[in-house]
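Budget justification aside, the reviewers requested a transparent look at the raw inputs and outputs of the sequence design task funded under Objective 1. We therefore reproduce one unedited record. The lines immediately below are the structure tokens for a 294-residue chain.
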């Protein structure tokens, strides 16, 4: 059970604040903007729609449905068939988004689709199919075929608030769903997250910052689809900040997962984040350590 309250973001679109996670569902700079510029545009869906008859998207943490809605709108006038699989633990979130009118930022057609997804957990017409898998993503991820996704929208609450979904083990399962030329997008640039992606065999790069100093992350098995990390970003992956979260049996709670990482950091001889910052940013923090949503 979560208690959700409405918040207005800087682009005028609305989001929720989660009492359970003590965090907003979107960046305060703009929920709609985040969906379009953090996820859908870097996924280059329009380009793919010129080359493929079907586009496959995995929306990890469907939430209110912003990221799927942005993809539905972007591909509305293309001939490509769009298939989306969304993973979400709380079925009340998409229902509450519809009930409170938050999704009125999208076209009437998209709102109708979102409404059907929220109520029936699936939607289908001749151009699009959407399936919402309700449950812990650590289990429901197994419903998604291997090497299936052209794009993965990876949007859990921040690593300290929801470490369960940023672990080496879960990110490995997510990466296994990505096609060899697919891309994974997330708002987080935390070194621990990027390290987990690298351990899953992905090449990681930065996406342009959106309303903040820190960038987001793009990851792919095809390194040509990913801009190179700066020297500072590469070296950050060798620091204590890059000690990843671990959840060996994919069932631990957030406290246990955070404790396990803190223990590993305490025992590690890696460079500290403050030493790394002194070398690269004159000691200044530029984000990427905790990466809160808001
Ligand atoms: C930051 S919000 C996602 C926002 C969403 N992408 C959107 O555009 O509206 C994170 C979402 O993850 C869901 N969540 C939290 N833990 C989860 C888990 N273990 N498995 C699946 N979903 C989870 C929350 O209920 C919440 O809806």
């Amino acid at each position: 059970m979560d208690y959700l309250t409405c918040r207005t973001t800087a682009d005028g679109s609305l989001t929720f604040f989660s009492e359970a996670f003590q965090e907003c569902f979107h960046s305060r700079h703009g929920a709609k903007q985040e969906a379009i510029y953090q996820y859908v545009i870097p996924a280059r869906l329009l380009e793919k729609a010129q080359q493929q008859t079907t586009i496959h998207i995995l929306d990890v943490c469907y939430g209110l449905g912003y990221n799927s809605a942005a993809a539905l709108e972007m591909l509305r006038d293309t001939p490509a068939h769009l298939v989306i699989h969304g993973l979400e633990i709380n079925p009340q979130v998409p229902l509450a988004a519809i009930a409170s009118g938050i999704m009125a930022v999208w076209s009437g057609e998209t709102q109708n689709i979102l409404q059907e997804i929220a109520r029936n957990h699936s939607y289908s017409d001749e151009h699009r199919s959407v399936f919402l898998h309700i449950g812990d993503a650590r289990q429901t991820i197994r419903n998604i075929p291997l090497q299936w996704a052209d794009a993965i929208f990876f949007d859990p609450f921040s690593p300290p608030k929801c470490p369960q979904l940023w672990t080496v083990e879960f990110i490995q399962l997510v990466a296994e769903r990505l096609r060899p030329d697919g891309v994974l997008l997330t708002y987080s640039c935390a070194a621990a997250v990027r390290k987990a992606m690298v351990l899953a065999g992905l090449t990681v790069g930065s996406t342009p910052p959106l309303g903040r100093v820190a960038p987001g992350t793009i990851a792919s098995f095809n390194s040509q689809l990913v801009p190179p990390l700066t020297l500072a970003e590469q070296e950050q992956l060798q620091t204590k900040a890059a000690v990843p979260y671990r959840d060996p049996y994919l069932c631990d709670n957030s406290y246990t997962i955070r404790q396990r990482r803190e223990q590993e950091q305490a025992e590690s001889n890696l460079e500290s984040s403050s030493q790394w910052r002194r070398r690269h940013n004159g000691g200044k923090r530029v984000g990427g350590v905790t990466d809160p949503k808001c």
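The mean pLDDT is 95. The pocket of S-adenosylmethionine is lined by residues 25, 35, 61, 63-67, 87-90, 93, 136-137, 155-157, 162, 164-165, 293 (CB under 6 Å). Computational costs for records of this kind are itemized in the attached budget.
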